[in-house]
Every structure is written in C-alpha cells, then in structure tokens.
Amino acid sequence: MQRKIFIAFFIILLLGILLTGFLNLGLIRSSYLNELELRLISNALLIEQFLEENQEVVKNNELKRIAEEYGQRIDARITFIDAKGDVLADTMANYQVIENHRGRTEVKDALEGKIGKSIRRSVTVDEEMFYVAIPVAFEDNALRVIRLAVNLEEINRINQTLFYYIGISILIGLFASLVLAYRFIRKMMEPIKEITEVTKKISIGGFDRRVEVKSDDEIGELANNFNNMAERLKEMISMLSENNTKFKALLTSMKNPIIAVDNKHRLILLNPAAEALFHIKMEDAMGKHILEVIRNNVLDTQLKNIFQNNLETQIEITTQEPKEKILKIYSNPIKLEKDPSITIGIVALIEDVTEIRRLEKMRSDFVANVSHELKTPLTSISGFVETLKTGAIDDEDTKMRFLDIIDIETERLTRLIDDILTLSEIENTHLRSVNQEIITSDVIMEVEEIMRPIADSKQIELLAEIDSNLPRIKGNPDWFKQMLINLLDNAIKYTLIDGKVYLNAFKKYNNIIITVKDTGIGIPKKDIPRLFERFYRVDKARSRKVGGTGLGLAIVKHIVLALNGRIKVNSDTGKGTEFTIIIPID
Fold it and tell me: What SS3 class is residue 523?
C-alpha cells in the first residue's frame, strides 16, 4: 500500500509541476506577445503621425530611407504597402523584388480598415516574425498600410531559458517533494502497518494483541476503535468458546443420537452418539443430504412436512443402512429467536428402539407360546375332570386311568413353569452378575452321576471322559449344572434303546471344551438354525411324548451366553447329534 500511495503521489506531483511549468511558459509567451503587439502598434502610429506631418517626405519618395532609419531606431522591420498590396518600401530588403503582400493576413485586415497581426515564417528573410499592420490614408499618396515586424528569436531564446530554469526547478522540487512525501507516507503508514500486523496475529488466535499508536488524528482514532473492537471480540469469542464447550459437553454426554439439518435437508450437526449409530464422522457428513446418511424416504417426506407446516412431531422408521434398525425420531423446527415464524432447520433426537421392539416381539411370541403350551395340558386336565364329574369317577379303572393322565399333565405343567422361571431368572441381568467359583471337573462328574441311572433305566450306555484338572471358572454353579443336565437329558430322551451318549470335557488352548454326543435320531439340517428358540420343537408329537417343554435348549443357550461362551451343533438325521460348548478361561 505504501508503494501504491508513493507512486500515486509521485504521478500527481509530477503532473502538477509539469502543468504549472507549461502554463507559466504559455503565460510568459502570451504576455510578451501582447506587450510586443502594443509596442509595434504604438510605433506604427507614431510613424503614421510623422508621415502625416511630413507629407513632402512621402512625395519625394523617401519611404525607403524612413523605413531603414526608423527600423534601426525601433529595432523592427518596417514595410510600406499600397492599396494593391505592392510593397512601396521595406527596411530589410529591396522592395522592388518583394512579392505582392495583399494575401498576407495582417495586410488583408489592414486594407479592410482594421489593425492586423500575424505570426509566421517570413518568406523574404526566412525567419519567424511577428507582424502588426495598421491602415493609413494620405491624400495624393499611394501608401495605405504601415506594417511593422520583429524577429521572434528573442522570445524563443527567452522560452528556452525559462524552460531550462523551470526544468531545473521541477527536478529539484520533485526530488525534495518525493523525499518529504516518502518520509510522510512512511510515517503515516507505520500505524497502519502495525494495525495490519496485529490483525494478522488476532486472526490466528492472538486476541491479547493491541495496537500501540499515540496520535490525535484519524489514525489514532482508528487505532483506539480497533483496540476496543479487539477487546470486544476477545470477550465474545471467549463467551462463544465457553458456550461451545458446554454445548459439546452436552451433546457428547447425551446417549441419544441428535442430528440437525438446514432448510435444504443438509446436515449441520451430529453428536457422537449419532456418529456411532450411522457409522459416519461429523466432518464427513457435514453438508450432505439427510438421505445420504439415513436412507429412508419416509424421513425425507416427514422433514418436508415439518418445514411446510412448522410442526413438532415424532415418527418411527426402519433403516437398512448401515444395518437394519428401528428408529424413533422426535423432531422440532429450529426457529429464529427474533422471528419465530421463520424456520431455518430441524433438530431431531433419535432413539434406537430396535432392541426394545425385538424384546416386545419376543415377549409377545413368548406369551403366545406359553399360553399355547399351558392351554394344552390345562384343556386335557379340564376335560378329564369334567368326565369324572359326569360319572366316570364311579368306574374304578377309568378313574385311575384319568387320574394318572391328570397327574402326568400336572407334572408337565410343573416342568413347564419351572423352565419358564429358570429362563426368566437367567435372562435377568441383575442375577447374571453372580460370580461364584465353579469347580468345573467336580460339577461335570456330579452331573454324570445324576444322569447315569436315567440312562441305565432306558438301556442307554453313558460314556464319560472328563479331565479331572479342568480350570475353575466364574459364574453360577446351579446354572452350569442345569446346562449339562438339559443337554444330557435331551441326548438320552432322543436316543433309542441300546444307544450311546458320550460326555467329554477337556481343556484346549484357553478354553474349556464340553461335548455331549448321542447316537439318537438326529436333527434335520433345516431345523438346526432355530434349535435354540423358545418352544421350538423339531417333532412336536415326539417332544410331548417324551415330556419336553421346548425350553431346554433355550435355557442352555442363555446359560452359555452368561458364561461368555458359545455353543455349536452338528447333527445327521438317523446318526445322532453332537453339542459342543466352548467356555473361555478367565
């Protein structure tokens, strides 16, 4: 900027000096010519007066002498011209060889009765001359014009001298002015440079910087205003930073995802919970359309409805990206504080209700299945009781047979209720926190002893191979025992007479491996994926016949999960089934 001001100042100063110089030259030349014109006119009038008073001189043809004599006296060329423009006498040349002057401007004006003047180069003497001609009228004489002329070489010499001095003055004045201008501009630019430097520091966060300018002029006022502005800016940024920190802390602490979009449905805000939900970073999502993050046309339509009607609403949508989820969205329009009628965006609080809806469906299915499972034995018991009431109680054989059936159905109801209570207990998060020490080898051997008489009663051979030094684990010992009993009980139930059931337990790497294998009827491949669902039975008729409730394997699965383990199934129809439990060692 300093350079630009200096160049502009130089150009203006140069133009001013040159213009002043040329105007002065023109004025001097003009003044000189005006003075010269008056002198020539005055001399011409004096010559006219002399000739008028001494007409015998004109009659005696002494004009040549007079032209030369007076021309020397007044240092001018004198020419006498008649009415036709012929030269009667001339100071500087033989008038007889001079061409006719009627076409000369000054002569033409004089012949018309006016004082004529002209500046041109003389053909006769080949010099630039200034001419003045006056009209005269003498009786009995041909003289009609007296013309005086002077050489302009003097004025040209004066002009050259003036131009020289003016040129020297311009150079000296320009140099002095530029030196002063440079110092003045530099002095003037110092506070501006300081303000510029401070603004640069403030722009990168140095809000404590201030301008040190002591001046009573506009620059000083500018510096004071700048310092006041910087102080105010520091306070505002500090306040904004504090508010932003609180806002970020609030957004970060909120477990529910929050998003905000502008009027064009482009994202302007995501909190960390929303980033985790949609697997996208805020910096990557900023400015993107909402459909690029939440691929759901219902949401886009709902947003348009909110903008059009300025509504507060809540909707529930299902998203497919990045994976299927059920989201409940509470949305509010973002309105201008000063003009609530203007909506500039929408903020939405999102609640992931996928697990809730899944649990609700599971509860609904569970209630339906429990109702169905309870209804069958209750209907059977009710039917036999009604039959007994109607007279069958008097027949001893019929009565005993019906009571046996009622007893069986009652036991079945008891087992079903026990399994339901067990499953509910296992699913209870609070009870899952039981962390007792399980002596793994002893518990497995104890279960083997419990189940062996049951296997023997059905003529099934139970073969066990249990490592006696298995590591101890943390968990609920009763659940661990229940898991093994359910697996062995299933294996025995679905194995035919003379079949075999194998129980193996050993350590491999950092896991305890427990396998229960039978040579029973096996499980079809299509049924294996649903094997651990509540009340799912591969063969409903056979399951009821052997007394199954449909909850045994569901209980096993939840116990394995409580131990942070996993369970695998391998089965071939007609060849048998093998369950493998893998429990990590803490």
Answer: coil
Q: Which residues pair with 132 in a beta bridge?
A: 117, 148
Report pLDDT for 542.
46
Taking all residues of the chain, what is their mean pLDDT, rounded to a whole number?
A: 78
Give the predicted TM-score (pTM) of the model.
0.42
Task: Output the DSSP codes for 429-462.
Answer: HHHHT--EEE-HHHHHHHHHHHHHHHHHHTT-EE
Q: How many other C-beta atoms are found inside a 10 Å radius of the C-beta of residue 156?
A: 12
Which two structure tokens, joined as six digits, stand for 581? 């439990």
Distance, C-alpha 492 to centroid of its chain: 68
Say which CATH architecture domain 2-157 belongs to.
Answer: 2-Layer Sandwich (3.30)
Residue in 277, 282, 276, 280 with CA at minimum distance from that of residue 260: 282
What is d(CA 48, CA 62) in angstroms, rounded to the nearest whole number?
Answer: 14
Ordered mean pLDDT values, 10 residues apiece, the chain (586 residues): 67 74 73 83 86 71 81 85 85 68 86 87 76 83 85 74 77 77 72 74 72 69 78 80 77 78 82 80 81 70 66 73 74 77 79 77 64 63 71 70 73 68 63 72 90 90 90 87 88 89 91 92 84 68 51 83 89 89 87
C-alpha to C-alpha distance for 13 and 36, rounded to whole angstroms: 34
Side-chain half-sphere CA neighbours of 388 within 13 A: 18
Residues 492, 500: Cα–Cα separation, whole Å: 8
Say whether domain 358-427 belongs to CATH 3.40.1190.20.
no
CATH number, domain 430-584, options 3.30.565.10, 3.40.50.2300, 3.40.190.10, 3.40.50.300: 3.30.565.10
* Distance, CA of 20 to CA of 170 (rounded, Å): 10
Domain 258-350, what fold? Beta-Lactamase (3.30.450)
**Domain limits of the chain?**
2-157, 207-253, 258-350, 358-427, 430-584
CA distance linking residue 18 with residue 385, whole number of Å: 133
Sign of the dihedral defined by the CA atoms of residues 29, 35, 39, 42, in that order? positive
> What distance in Å separates the CA atoms of residue 153 and residue 546, rounded to the nearest whole number?
146
Do 2-157 and 258-350 show the same overall fold? yes
CB atoms under 10 Å from CB of 213, counted, come to 19
Strands 143-151 vs 313-319: parallel, antiparallel or unpaired: unpaired
Count CA atoms within 13 Å of residue 38 on its CB side: 5
Token couple for 72? 């020397």
Our CA angle for 183, 187, 189, nearest 5°, is 115
